[in-house]
Inverse folding.
């Protein structure tokens, strides 16, 4: 059970919604913070938007429906070995949708603000490298839509 | 800085018009220094009036002027612009030019463009400089520089006096208003322009950091739950980085890409162009180019052997505005 009072979140993702992709690397987070402080464009590591092996979905947090502190505590429930949660890459649902991706709410009692970005795939493509390259193309495009990096 | 509590860099243009004495103009440009002691200010770059008229006559869209940070650089003999900015304006180069830097015995190649340059204290202020066809040299600025224009001696020579006012921590540029025309000395000169300030780093200074980042890919892949890069991928990536360090000054971002792969990722300092080289676990690879505004024309190529990257890498990085 979550420690927080669950807010009502709409089952559909609205185009203006802001979505957060989690960053756990202290080194990458430090680089991004420095880039933002220098008012330079963010060079977001594309691996953050590449789906895990054998998957075509990216987990994101729906940033508009909870306080950042609440989302941080939800993220830290899935603590990672040798890593501390650093923050989120913020993208707009509309930007991601315009790239051809679907965005679906996937809330659960454990995480009421969870959503998935679904990367389009070619059902007739079976070459692993072609599948991977397709995912990297989308990772590159989604990373370019990142509006900012917000720390926890 | 005490005179600037908001820590906001402003450039103040002040014209004191002394009508009584019939002295028409005494322009004075006061530029507070930034935290590093540099006189930086906003510079608006445009495609220039002639080019704008041509586009309008053809009923083509006129690119919006771009406002970027500029450094008043008395060490640069001519005004220089980060190449990604002129490309964002959709300009094409009129010719190739060569210039010298303190860190290179050989001339470095850049491209000459003609741009509109507008510098003023604000949108309603009378501009200090407003020219529509200034020849500038464009080349990729180092990503760690917080500016995209070097306002060189060709424009600075309009002033009669430049001094540093310690009390207000500002550089003060003063002119009697007698130098109305813009010097174009570098336009047809035999002498090579000299770019002094920008090249604090020579080609490949970034290599030790990149190789350290490459080693760290093993650990970061583990942290992200991915297979660590193979020795084959590491060897190919290292060889490619060593090749790149001999040709370019821009520093890539190195990270694990999952599936035991390595990403070598270049990003422009202005705009949103990317050149992403991925070295696979088996030594093959793929390159992905994303150039702002090109969309469907983005470049992608898969190679059987990542050493093939070396054949086209420089051209591709050039196309993406990285170099």
């Amino acid at each position: 059970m979550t420690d927080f009072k669950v807010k009502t979140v709409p089952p559909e993702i609205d185009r203006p919604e802001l979505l957060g992709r989690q960053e756990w690397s202290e080194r990458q987070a430090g680089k991004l913070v420095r880039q933002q402080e220098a008012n330079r464009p963010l060079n977001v590591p594309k691996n953050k938007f590449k789906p895990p092996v054998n998957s075509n979905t990216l987990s994101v947090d729906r940033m508009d429906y909870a306080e950042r502190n609440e989302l941080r505590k939800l993220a830290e429930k899935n603590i990672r070995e040798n890593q501390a949660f650093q923050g989120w890459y913020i993208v707009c649902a509309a930007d991601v949708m315009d790239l051809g991706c679907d965005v679906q709410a996937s809330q659960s009692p454990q995480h009421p603000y969870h959503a998935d970005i679904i990367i389009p795939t070619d059902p007739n493509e079976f070459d692993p490298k072609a599948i991977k390259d397709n995912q990297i193309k989308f990772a590159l495009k989604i990373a370019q839509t990142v509006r900012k990096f917000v720390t926890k | 800085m005490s005179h600037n509590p908001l820590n906001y860099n402003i450039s103040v243009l002040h014209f004191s018009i002394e009508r009584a004495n019939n002295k028409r103009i005494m322009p004075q440009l006061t530029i507070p220094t930034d935290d590093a002691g540099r006189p930086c200010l906003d510079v608006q770059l445009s495609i220039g009036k002639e080019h704008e008229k041509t586009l309008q006559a053809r009923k083509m869209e006129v690119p919006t002027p771009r406002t970027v940070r500029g450094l008043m650089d008395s060490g640069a003999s001519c005004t220089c612009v980060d190449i990604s900015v002129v490309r964002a304006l959709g300009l094409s180069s009129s010719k190739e030019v060569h210039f010298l830097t303190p860190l290179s015995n050989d001339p470095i190649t850049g491209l000459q463009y003609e741009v509109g340059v507008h510098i003023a204290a604000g949108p309603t202020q009378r501009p200090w400089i407003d020219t529509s066809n200034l020849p500038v040299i464009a080349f990729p600025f180092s990503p760690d520089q917080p500016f995209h224009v070097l306002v060189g001696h060709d424009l600075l020579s309009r002033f009669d006096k430049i001094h540093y006012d310690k009390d207000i921590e500002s550089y003060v540029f003063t002119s009697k208003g007698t130098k109305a025309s813009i010097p174009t000395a570098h336009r047809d000169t035999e002498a090579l322009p000299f770019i002094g300030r920008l090249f604090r780093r020579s080609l490949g200074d970034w290599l030790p950091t990149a190789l350290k980042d490459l080693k760290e890919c093993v650990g970061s892949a583990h942290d992200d739950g991915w297979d660590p890069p193979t020795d084959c991928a590491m060897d190919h990536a290292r060889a490619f980085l060593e090749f790149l360090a001999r040709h370019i000054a821009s520093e890539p971002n190195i990270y694990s890409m999952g599936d035991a792969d390595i990403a070598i990722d270049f990003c422009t300092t202005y705009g949103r162009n990317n050149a992403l080289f991925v070295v696979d676990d088996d030594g093959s690879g793929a390159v992905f180019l994303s150039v702002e505004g090109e969309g469907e024309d983005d470049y992608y190529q898969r190679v059987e052997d990542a050493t093939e990257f070396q054949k086209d890498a420089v051209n591709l990085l050039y196309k993406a505005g990285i170099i």
In short: The longest helix of chain B spans residues 207-223. Residues 1-26, 178-191, 196-201 of chain B have pLDDT under 50 and may be disordered. Chain B is about 20% helix and 30% strand.
